[in-house]
User: What shape does this take?
Amino acid sequence: MCSIISIYEFTKLRVVLIKNQLNCVSCTPNSFFRRAFDFVYTPYSISNKRHTDSGASKPEARKSRSLFKKMLDIDGKTHEMLINNYISNLKIKKWESNYVIAEKTVQLFRHFIDTINWSTTIELLNQLREYGFQITSALPLQFIVGNIIRRILNIVREEYTAARKSSEEEIDVQDSLHKIVTSEDDVDDYNSIVPELKLSIFEHLDEFQMEIESSNEDISKQALEHIHSNEIILTVGKSSEVEMFLKEAAKDRIFEVFITECSPLNHGRQLALNLSKHKIQSTLIPDSTMFGIMSRVNKVIIGVDSVMANGGLRTFNGCHAVALAAAHYSVPVIVLAPMYKLSSRYLCSYNQDAFNEFVSPAGVLNYSDSVVSKVDVYNPTYDYVPPENVTLFISNNGGHSPSYVYRLLSEIYHPLDYDLSVQNK
Amino acid sequence: MSTNKVQKQDVLQAVVVANFFHKNFWPAADGDSACLLPLVNRPLLHYTLDMLESSGILDVIVFCSSGSADRIKASVQRASGARRLNVVYTTSDTCRSFGDVLRHLDACALIRNDFVLLWGNVVGRLPLLPLVKRFKTLRQSGDKGAVMTIVYQRSSDPNTTSAADQTVVLAADTGRVLFHNRARGKINLPLELVLDNRTVDIRRDLVDTNVVICSTAVPPLFADNFDFQTKDDFVKGLLINEEILNSTLYAHVVDGDGYAGEVFDWPSYERVTRDVLHRWTYPQVPEVVDKYSLRYGNVYFGDNIKLALTCDVGNDTVVGSDSKFGSDTRISNTVVGKNCTIGNNVVIENSYLFNGVNVKDKSVIRFSVIGENCTIKENSNISDSCILGNGVVVEPNTELKQKRLLSSDSNNKSKKLSAKAFVYDAENNSDSDDDEDVRGLTFRTRSWSINSGSSSDNDDTASVAASIPDDTCMFYSEVVDSLIRGFEDHVHCDNLILEINSSRYAYNINYREANFQVIRAMLTLNSKAELEALNQVRYYTQLQSKLDYFMPVLRNYIKSSDSCEDCLSAIEDIAKGEELLNTVIVKVIHHLYNMNILSEESILRWHEKEEDTQFAKNIREKANKLIEWLKDAEEETDSDEDDSS
Amino acid sequence: MQNWLEFQAVVMAAGKGSRIPEMTATKPKCLLPVGNKPMIYYPLKLLENAGFRDTKIIVADNFLVDIQEEVDQLGLEINLSFVPIQSDKDWGTADSLRHISDNILTDVIVLSCDLITDIDLHQVLNIYRNNNASLVSLYFSPSQDEQCVFTVPGPKSKNKFEKDIIGYDSKTSRLLLMASASDYEETMPISSALLNKCSNLTLCSKLLDSHMYIMKRWLVNYLVKDVDISTLKGELLPFVVKKQLSRHCKNIALNEKCIEDEEDEKPDIFNISKESDIETNIRSMSCFGNTYNFEEIIKCYAFVADSNIGIRANTLYDYCRINKIIHKLNINLGDEKDKISPEAEILSNQFDKETCFVGPNTKIMEKTSIKSSTIGSRCTINPKTRITDCILMNGVTIEERCVLHNCIVCHDAVISAGCELKDCLISGNFKVPSGGKHYNEVLTAMERLMEI
Assistant: This one.
C-alpha cells in the first residue's frame, strides 16, 4: 500500500475541500475571487481540468471525497507511522534528488495540516514543530527537509497574520518593508481563531509547491543574462539546475562547456552525455585537470546541495577545489540555488559529523583490493565552499550576492522557527 | 481472487534461517539465538532484514527453533527496517542442520517461487532483485537445470582470511560452478572441465556470503537426498551427480556492486565489524540506522555518553549510548555497548563489550568478548580471545587468557572461579564437544600489523627452502601442505603417505631425496609466529606430539640404514636454521631412536662422520651424551646376550 | 649506435611449413600469398606500424634469394637484414635466436612469419613495460563468430585444435601455467604453490598462441648457456613460466653453492636474470610499479587479445580462413592499384572488384566470371571459366571452360580445358589433365597416380 499520497490525489482533495469550504463558509467576494483565480492557475493541469469538467456537481465531489476518506482509512497510518516511513525512505536513499525530497516533504506536511486536530494556530504550529523536530533530528544531514519544514511554518504564520490583518483592514498585497517591520512589532500569540485559515494555508502551500516545481525553469530563464556567445563554461558533476540552465542558454547562444567527472560518482559523464545530445559542445575532463583548464574558463557554474546561512555552500565533493582555482584566476563562480535550498544553518566549525555524509568507500576502492584491511578509506559526499569564493547566487527570484543571503533567509523563514526544538508558548 | 493469486506468485520471497546449528559464539550466544548477537550494538538479524528490505524484498520467512522464536519475534519487532516487511515465522524442533530446514520448508510448502535463501547472519547491501532477475532469465532462456546462484564476496585478502579457504572453479563466460573444494591445498581438476569450457576461472579469493538464490527445485532436492546436511554437501552432491540430478549451479561474485559479509565465527565477526565501521555496508552504518555521531577515524559516539577529559578514544571505536568512561582510560578498535560503565585507568583494545558491562578501575581487556551485564572488577586482565557469557562477574586481580566464562554452572562441566564465574574447560570436555567448538576462539592480532601474517610466513619457508632445486622445492611445499592439513583434519596417515607418494612421482623425486624432504617438512611444521610464542619445553612437547602423530608416515619412509642417514642429515639441516630445534635436537634423535625409527648404527655412524663446519661439530658434541648412553646400552645388550647365551 | 633502442625485432621466417606440405614443397611458407601480399608482409608491416626501423629476418639459406627478391618488392620502409640459417640442420626457433645472439643487444621481440593480425603492437609492449616483465606472450581468444564455416580444400579431415592450456592471473594477466592437454590424463593437478600465488587463476584451453614473444635480453643469454633448448614455445616458455613459481637463492653464499652443484647440469636461470646494481637502484628510487612485484625477478605475462583478429596461418584451415577474412582486417593492404594491378589485363565483364585481388601481368579473358578470389601475377585465365572462392598463385594457367570453386592452385600449375574442381588443392607446377572432375582432393605431382 502506498503510504504517500500522490500529487494527483492531493489535488483532488484540494478541490473537494475547497468546495466544502465554499459551501459552508461565508467569505468576502474578494477572497472568493482570489480562490477562483487560484483554481485556474493551479499548478496541476489535471486538477484544472477536473475542476472545469465536473464543475460544482455535488455527487462527484462527494464521491471523490469518500474515495479520499477511504484511502486514508485503508492507509490507516498514524502520523507516527508516516513520519517513520518518510524517515526510513530518506535513510535508504529511496528519493535521490533534492527536488523529490522537497516535494514529498510538502505533501507530508500538507497531510499533517489537514489531519491534525487544531483549533488555534499555536496548536498547529506546535504540533508541526514537534514533527519537524522529530524528522530533522533523525535526519541531521538532510538540510533540505529542515528548509521545507521551516518554510511551511512560515507560511502558516504569514497566512495567520495576513488573515488577522484582513479582518481588520483590507489586505494590501504589496506591504512595504516599513509596514512589515512595524507590524511584527506587536507580538502575536497566534491564539485567535481565524475561520478560513486552513484554506488559505493550502492555497499558499500550492503556491509554494508551484514555486518548487518551477524553480528550475525560473532559474534557467535567466540563463541568457549570464552566458554569452563563445564563452567557456566549467561545471562540476551533474546538477539538474545547471543542465537546464545550459540547455536554455544554448537555444540562443553558442558556447563551450567543460564538465569535470566529479569522481567517485562520476555523474559528470551523464551530464556531458545529456548536453552533447542537446548539441552543446561539451568536454568531459578528469577532476585533476580542472586547474589547468581554469585559465581559459569564463565562468564557473555549479549546482548546490544547500546554501548555508552565511552564503557558503554545501555541495558536491570537489567543488571547493574548483572554487579556489576559480578564485586564483579570478573567474566568477555562479551558483544556481533555488530558494528551497537556502538553509538557516551555519557551519560553525569544520565539524564533519554535522555537515558531511560519509558513504561506502566502494566508489574509491574495490573491496577486493588487498590494501582494504590496511587503510582507512573515507568517501565524503559534500564539500564546503566558503562564501568568499562564491560570486553570485541565482535563485528563482533573481541574482543575489552571498552577503545578501541573510536577508533572503529572514524573508522566507520566521526567526522563531530557526530552532525547532524549543517550543513556543 | 485470481489476479490476487497471480500477484502472490510474483512476490519474491526470502527465507532467513535464524538458527545457525553451530556453537561458534557460545557462550556469548547460543546456536539457536546467535542471530541476535549484537554486531555494533545491533542484532545481526536486523542487518539481514534491513538488507532484504532495502533491496526490495518484502515477503520474508524466518525459520527459527521454537525455543528462541519468541525472542526473535520480539527483536524483529523492534527492528527499524523490518516494519515494512511481511514476516512469517516457521519453527521446527526436529531440524538439526541446514538440510533439515530445507526439508522442513519442502514439507510446509511455503515456497511458491524462486526465492532468496540466506542466514540470519548476513550483513551488507546487495542488489538482490537484479540477481534474481538474472537467475530467472537464465532459467527461462539458457539453462533450465539451473537451481541455484551462490553469491560470493570477493575477499580483500585471500591469503589471510580464514573464510576463504575454498577453491571454486567457474566457467568464465557463464559463471557456472564447475568444481568446489573446501581444502586449501592443491586441487585435481578434471581435465574435461578445462577442455570443454572456453575459459575457466580457478578462484581462491571468494568468501561465502551465505546468500543463495534458489529455484523451487531446491527444497525437493534436499528432501530427495537425505545425506545433504549443509550447503557444501548440496554443492558437492550436485556437482558429482550433475547428470543424474540434472541440476546446475551458478555463482555471482560481488565486487564493487555491493558488499555482503557473513558472521559465522569470531574472526568473521571481527572482520565484518571492521567493515561496518569502515562503512562498507553503507547505509547500514551506525549513525544512519541508530543515533550515533561519526567522528574522524571511524569513531561513533552514541547519545548521552560521558567521557572523562583524559579518556583516550582511538580509531574504529563505537561507544553506545549512555555509557560512561573514567579518566585515563584508553580504548581503541573496540565496540562498547549501551549503558556500559568503564572505570579509570582501564585499557580496552580490540574487544567487544555488549550492553551493560561494568569494568572497574585499572582493568585491561584485549582481544576479548564481554557478554551482557558482565562486571569486571579491579585490576583484572582479560586477554587473548576470552569469551565471557552474559552476567559473569570477574573478581578483582584475575588474569584470564583464552578462556570461556559462564555465569552459572548448569551441568557441572565447568570449573568454578568465583560465585558468578565458571571457566568452561575445553580439555576436559573435549569428548563431548567436537573440535568445532574450539574453532571460534581465535582472534587474530590485527592483520594490518605489517610484520605478522602471511608475509613473514612466506619468508620463513623461503629461507628454509633456499638452495633447493625447484622441483624438490615444490615437492617440499606440497609435503608441508599435506602434513599441515593432515594434522589439522586428522587425516589417516596411510592417506598421507599416498598423497606424499603421488607428489613424489609428480615431481620426480628420488627415494632418498623424498626421505630427506619429508623429515624436513615434519620438523618445520610450526610457523615462525607460533614458534616465537613457545618456549623450549612446550616446543618440544608439541613437536613430539606431531612426530607421534606422523609416526606411521615416518615408519614408511625411514626403513633402511640409508634412509636413517637421510633422516639425520635432514634434522641437522633444519637445526642449522632453527634455534629452538637446535636446542632439542638430541631429544628428537633420542625420541626417534626410542620409537625404533633410527637405528643405533646409523646414529653412531652419523656421529662418527667427520665434519669440518663448526656447527656440525657443535651438534655432535651435544649428542655426545646420547652416544655414550647408546654405547652403554649396546654393551649392556651385548652383555645381556652374552649372559643369556 | 643502436644501443638506445628499446627493442630489437626478429622475424622467424625459416619455417618449412611442415603442416602444409602440399603448398610448401617448392616455395617457402613465408611467401605464400595472403590477399595480394606474401605472408611475411604482415608481420613486417605490423612492426613498421609500431615504429620499428630495423628488423632481422631469419630465413632458410636455400630460400634466401627468393625471399629477398620478393620482400624487396613490397615497398616496406623498415630496414631488413636477412640472416640465413642452414636449412638442413633443422633448427628450432630458439636455435635460431641463439645463432644471432651476438647481434642482440637489447630486449627482443620475436615474431613468426605466419602471424597475421591487426592488433596494436603497443598494447602488448605496454604490458611488458608496465610490469617490467621478463617475457610477454601474445594470445588470441578464438573467434566468436561461427560464420566463417567453410570447407577446407583437399580431403576432408578433422580440424584439430592444439589443446594448450594456458593459465594466467585474470587481474594482472600474469602468465603462470603453460601445459598441453596431452600431459594429463583425467585430472589436472594444480599445485598449491600456484594457487597461493594467484587467487584468481584463469585457465584457457582454446587460446591461440601467436608465437610472438617479447623477452628480456637476459633470456637470450640464458638460451646461449642452455644449449638443450631448441624451441621457444615448446621448451623455453614452459620452463620460464614454471621457474616463476620456484624460489631462488637469496644470499650470495648459497648462490655460489648452487653454481657449484649444478655446474654440469644446467645454468641457474636466476643467476642470469639477476639485475644489475644500477637497475636495482633505479627501481628502488622510482615510485612506479607494484610493490609486490619487486621481489620477483622472473615475471611472465600474457596479453590476451579479445576483439582483434589474429591468425597464425600455419595450417591449411587457418590459411584458407585468413584469405577469406583478410578484407575485414584493419590492415592497410594498399590502395586500389595494389589490389588489382593496373598491369593486369582484365577483359572479363563478370569480375567482382570488391572481393578480388589480381597481381600484375595477369590476363583475364572475356567471358569469365570471377568472385571472391585471389589471383597472383602472370596468370592466364581463359574464356568461359568460372572461378569462385579460389586462391591462384603466380603463373597459373587456367584453360577454357573450367569451373573452380574453393580451390587453392599453387604457382605455375595448369588447369587444362574443361576441368571442374571443387574444394581441391593443386600443388605447384602440376598440370590437371583436361576434362577432369575432382572434389575434395589434393592433386600433386608426386602422388599423381595415387590421387587420381
